[in-house]
Amino acid sequence: MNNPTPVPPPLIDIGANLTHDCFDPDRDEALDRAAAAGVTRLIVTGASVEGSRHAVALADAKPGVLWATAGVHPHHAADYDEAAHADIAGLAQCDNVVAVGECGLDYFRNFSPKEAQRSAFARQLQTAAAINKPVFLHQREAHDDFVTILDEHADGLAGGVAHCFTAGPAELLAYLERGLYIGITGWICDERRGDSLRAAVRELPLDRLLLETDAPYLVPRDFPEKLPGRRNEPRVLPHVLHAVARAMACEPDEVAAAATANTEKLFKI
Questions:
Q1: Pairing mode, if any, of strands 181-184 and 135-140?
Q2: Nearest to residue 152, comparing CAs of 125, 192, 183, 113?
């Protein structure tokens, strides 16, 4: 008799860019594939005013399956004027919006001036504190300014996640000391540039771990299947889970259960 196929542990993808137009032809089918792979709930990332509106609309259409974040990514910080601030503050209060962001700093690309990034980041932290919701954070090549601004607003924040964490143990410790959860993507599968992240994950407590794909970006380099157009999908999350479990020297089911419990706790879903 053949052994039954193991039932995948239920997972929550905390960062899926389902508003991306590459999902327009088959968004529902991508969600069906995710559910079949055990990814039963997802948080849709809002990274601009229009993207946040779209994320909220997607979550409205699939209650109990999709939630949203509302924010302006540092790439778009130059557009964060008073109207954008008001729009994000309003969207963030929607019941299906679980966090403010994606917000933070990105000095790697510098698509917006640094001062505009710092201002937009601080104002979104203020919004999150005012409505008692956590923050969905982005940081790349801007660690010192990032933690300085976080510290200036720490007293009012209801927690948050360092989304798509890719750094090493030192930055991990800094974020853990500030009470953040850590979002791990398929970057951990990259044999070229994932060594620092794998070293950090070995130091990551299970009770601070979250899992995400950042789809359609960051296809794990060792994913055995060729994905059309190199488009990442939420159904790939179990592959990330197993890579994290190996790095943490834990059983996948233990890691899955912890990540799901942590997600439910932080985002109140």
A1: unpaired
A2: 125
> Can you list the residues of the chain whose pLDDT is less than 70?
1-8
Confirm if 168 and 196 have CB atoms less than 8 A apart: yes
Domains: count for the chain: 1
Report the pLDDT value the prediction gives residue 9, as an integer from 0 to 100.
Answer: 74
The answer as to whether 84 is a domain residue is yes
Name the residue type at position 104.
G
| DSSP codes of every residue in 13-75 | EEEE-TTSGGGTTTHHHHHHHHHHTTEEEEEEPP-SHHHHHHHHHHHHHSTTTEEEEE---GG
- Which strand (E) or helix (H) includes residue 222? none
| CA dist., res. 229 & res. 226, Å (int) | 9
> What's 48's domain CATH number?
3.20.20.140
- Residue 5 has a pLDDT of 44
Inside any domain, residue 233: yes
Report yes or no on whether pTM surpasses 0.85.
yes
Identify whether 89 is part of a domain. Answer: yes
- Structural domain harbouring 224: 11-267
Tens digits of per-residue pLDDT, 207-251? Answer: 999 999 999 999 999 999 999 999 999 999 999 999 999 999 999
Task: Kindly state whether residue 5 falls inside one of the protein's structural domains.
Answer: no
Number of continuous H segments (helices) and E segments (strands) in the chain? 9, 8
